[in-house]
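Late entry, written up from scratch paper. The run itself happened at the end of the previous shift, but nothing got recorded in the book at the time, so transcribing now.
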Amino acid sequence: MKLTPTIEQMIEEAPAPIEPRHFMRRLLEFLKNGLHLSAPALPYGADYCALTYSGAFAATAVYKTGGSGGTILKTLTFGNDGTNITSITAT
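Output as recorded:
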């Protein structure tokens, strides 16, 4: 029975130019140490988004900078037909 090689062994044995090897080593570090990803970025340079709902659907999304009491950057208003979102208006 042949053992499956480790990631380290695969990287060491891979015939690759120096740049891709550095990339693979960096990827290995991420995999070994866990990926530390920040929260996904909000659009429009915002750091806060307030949602209001109409029934089961989001009715508006208000994007702000400076947290919940900050400056409004963009407001999206969502239209729906009771089943699907049908339009988005930005102001």
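The longest strand covers residues 71-80.
(Scratch paper discarded after transcription.)
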